[in-house]
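Practice set, problem 2.
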Amino acid sequence: MPWLKLLHIAALVIWCGSLLYLPALLSQALQLRKDSGFAQGSPPMPRFFYNSIATPAALTAIASGTLLFLLHGLLGGWLIFKLVAVVAMVAAHGSFGWLILRLELGHYRWVRPANWLALFVALAGIIAVLGFVLAKPLDWS
C-alpha cells in the first residue's frame, strides 16, 4: 500500500511544518496584543491555522502511521523510540493549542517562554522521528 505511506509522509510533513510555524504565529499575535492600546480580540489566524491545518494533519499522520504499523506488522526497537518522539510532538501540539487559548483569554504571562519551550520540544521530536526512521536502530524484524 504505497498510497498509505505517501499519505503518512505528506501528513507528517504538513504537521511538522505546522509545528514550526505555530510559534511564529503565536509570537506575532502576542506582539499585536501587547502593542494595542486598548482591549481587542486576538487575530483569528493562530486558531484557524491550528484547527484547520495543524490538527487535521496531526490526526492524519497518526492514523495513517497506526494503519501502516498494523497492516505491515512493523516491529523494532526503533519504532518504540519513534513513538516516544511522536508523543513529544503531540505534547508540543497540545501546548500550542493551550497557548492560543491563553492569548485569546488575555493571559499573557509566561506565554513567550512556554512558546519557546514548546518549539524546542517540537524540534526535538521532529529530529528524533527523522533520525529513528532513517537509521532504524535496534531493528528486530
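Problem 2, part (b): a different protein.
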Amino acid sequence: MTGKKREEQYLKELQEIYEKYAVDPSDLEKVRQACETELPITYIQNTEKAQLCLEQKEYCDFLFHKLFDELEEYHLTHGEDCGIITVDGEEEDWHHRLTPDTRTPRSIYEMYGHRSNESPRMIRALLNQLRDYSAFFAGEARGQIKGDQGEENVRKYFSMFAGKYPFRMNVVLPVKDEFARSSELDSVIVTPKGIFVCEIKNWGNEREDIYIERDDTWYVCGQHKREKKKNPFEQNIRHTLALEKYLEANGITCRLIPVVVIADSRTTIRNESGKTVLKASAVYEYIQNQLLPDTIDAQTQEKILGLLDHTGAGANAFPCKDFFAVSDVYEEAIDAVLRIRDVEYRQEQALFGQCESIIKKYDRTKTLVLLILFLLLGILAIAGIIAFRGVIKVLIGLVLLGIVCGGLASK
C-alpha cells in the first residue's frame, strides 16, 4: 500500500469514528431556543418585587453551578481557549476540548481539529446568560430594598411631626394616568398651608452627591461614577395633578405643593434647578418656614385624610422580568448541552485513540525503513572493501616503502 493510499485509509477510519458519534438535532434545538429566549414580563406589587428578584437570582445561580460543576468531569481545563467566564465574582479562563498529539501527521491533525464541536459555544452562551440574569436580578433586588429602606427612613422622620402635620405613605389614587394606571404617591402631608406631595428617592450615600442641573437633569456622582437618573420632578408633577383631580372630584380645592425628598441624609445635594429638593430631616423645617396663609381648616383636613385612607384603588402592579416562567427551557437546555458534551467527549476520546494508533503505525513503518537502510549501508561497505582490497594492499606497500627510504636517508 502506497503512502497516499495508507493516509486515505487512516482518514476514512477517523471519519467513521466521527460519524458514529452524532449529536441529536433536538438537543441542539433546545440549547438554541434557550439562548434566544427573552424573559417574559409579570406584574407584581412593589412589596413583592425584592423577594421575587432574590429568589430568581438564587435559581439562576443554582442552574449556573449545575452546569459548571457537571462539566468538571470532562476535564475541560485543557485545550482550546473559549473565553472568560465569571464564577462567584471572579474571572477565570475556560477551556473546552482536548488537543491532539503534536506528532500526529498534518492531515490527521486537520481532520481532528476542524470537525464540528457544538458544545464550547453553547456552554459559554448558557453560562454567560445565567450569570447575566443573576447579576440583573441581584441589582433589581438591591434597588427595591434600598427604595423600601428609604421610605421607612422617611416614615420615621415624618412620624416626629405627625401630631401636627399628619401624613400618609403609598397613597394609591383611582385617577388613571395616560397609561390607564392608577397613580401611586410616595407620601402626602396634610397641613393648614396646603398639601405637600412628596416623591421619595433613596439615591446616593455618604460617598456620593446628587447633582441637579438647571435643565432638571439628575445625576448621582461619586468616585469614578456619574450615573444619570430619571427626572423625579416630572413624575411628581403627574402625581400632584392626579391628586388635585381626585380631590376636586370630591368637592375639595386647595393648594398642592410638590416636593422631592432624598431619603439618605448622608447624601450631599447640589441643586441648580430652582425646584424644591429636600432631605427627609429638613421637611418639617421647610413646612414651618413656608410663608403661606392657613387655607385648609381642621374639618377639611380630616376629610382629605379620610379620602386618602379610602381611595378604593388597588395598589399598582409593576413590571418585573420573570425567569421562573421559562425555567424549564433552561433546565432542558442544560441537560441537552451535557448530553451533547458527553457525545463529543466520547468522540474526542475515540478520535484521539485512533490518532495514537495511526501514530504507532507510522512509527513502526519508520523503524522498518531505517533498519533496511542500515543493512543496505552495511552490505555496501563490505562489498566496497572486498572490491578494492588490491588497491588497499598497494597503498599500504607504498607507505611502508616510504618509511624505509626515509630511514635510510637519515643515516
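Answer key, part (b): Confidence is low (pLDDT under 50) at residues 75-88, 92-116. The longest strand covers residues 167-176.
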